[in-house]
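User: As part of a screening pipeline, I want to sanity-check one entry by hand. Below is the sequence and the SMILES for NAP. Please return the complex as structure tokens so I can compare it with the automated output.
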Amino acid sequence: MISPARKPEMIHVVGKADNRQHAVIELVSSPDHGLPTSSLRARPILLGLTSNNLSYARGGDLLHWWKTYPVPSTAPAPYNDQSSWGIVPAWGYATVTESNIPEIIPDSLLWGYWPTSTLPTLLCLERSDPEEHWVEVSNHRQQLMPLYNRYERVLFDEKNLDDMAWSTVFRGVWVAGYLLSEYVFSSDPRAREPIHPLGAASKLPWSADDADLSTAVVMVLGASTKVARSFLWCLFNRPRESGPLGLVQVTSSPDVLQELADKGWGGKSKTLAYTETKQATEWIKGLQPLKLVIVDCGARDNILNQIYRNIQESALSSCKTVILQIGSQQKVYTADEVQAARSAMISLGKIQYNTSGIQDTVINREGAATYFRKISHNWKDWLAHRASAIPDMRLVYGQGIAGDNGIYGGWERLSNGEARPEQGLVYAL
Ligand SMILES: NC(=O)c1ccc[n+]([C@@H]2O[C@H](COP(=O)([O-])OP(=O)(O)OC[C@H]3O[C@@H](n4cnc5c(N)ncnc54)[C@H](OP(=O)(O)O)[C@@H]3O)[C@@H](O)[C@H]2O)c1
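Assistant: Here is the complex for your manual check:
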């Protein structure tokens, strides 16, 4: 019998040396090979793209993100050269097409970290804690940070398609803001041992004083990034006496963010456009903080250097200044810019933040069941209140991998800094 011709699948590939280079390749999926023990194949159906995906490409070698889903060796040349081309993963949902894991039957829905591709992808999974959580155990993914090897079986609910779409855009980065407020700058650092921004495995010290915001002013750069919005929402919900004394937001969208801050912070917040940062020092001085915490979520063009200079030249120079590096500007960095960013880490004494390192620490301390119960509760609460947390934001739907309206077009927009602060890019595949 002649089998019907298979429809080609699409894969978005990105150049490892220059992340601006990208292409869509077509691949006819080969007749299915048997599945290894405890494994399944799943096809991504709904993925989100944010600046975070640019980081997966920029740090793909250093942090092993390129190893998650290597380009198939059957891809056409030159894209089959895995040293030059890679697949950038994205957060979202996939449906199971084949499985030999009894608890995850075909058509089940999984949440996790997927290839930007329509090709059914092989996962080798081991059951984890809590129930419905699974961990990817393939050899080629062992160097990946644990956060990226965790999958969750979830239930499909037609009524909640909107929640699913927002999850693809926010859930992957939301946890970063949550952990920053809850564990690095814990609202009760004397009661709960604070965690260094890189996690306990770094063996770097992080004392209750480091974690204490009660005498600090917090300045958030790139305040309209999704990771910053999550952090700010958590800050708003803390007991007021735990601090900070005041909040400065620096963003290209000052009006909407000031309106939001006014609701939670009244006169204790100031929101500035990038051109207005000179006003920050005087305002902060008025609050008489002992500490200034700058959280850089990916500010535009060297603004941090300028702010740092302003601080050093003002009466705030005696104030303890702590700079946390969360993210980078929404653009593709040249090799020289990557080098300059590394040098700035040292010259400004920036402290790198790592969500996976903190999550791993909390899981070790509290147990996975307790941690995920707590985070799931808070995430669902945020999702239910998103209309007040992010009133300006809207989803921008794309379709498929290829073309301007697909993942290809999304990558163009991110690479060129064209994804706007109020947009959440989500793709139905
Ligand atoms: N270290 C960690 O563990 C960790 C965890 C999560 C995320 N991150 C990183 O945090 C950063 C932010 O991620 P995200 O997903 O939250 O970002 P996002 O929402 O996609 O960022 C969009 C924002 O980027 C800012 N931006 C800066 N330069 C821009 C430009 N040239 N064009 C357009 N927008 C620009 C804008 O904010 P303003 O207008 O307010 O400047 C815009 O609202 C990424 O670098 C990500 O990798 C790190």
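Points to compare against the pipeline: The first helix runs from residue 51 to 58. The chain has two domains: 8-156+392-428, 175-358.
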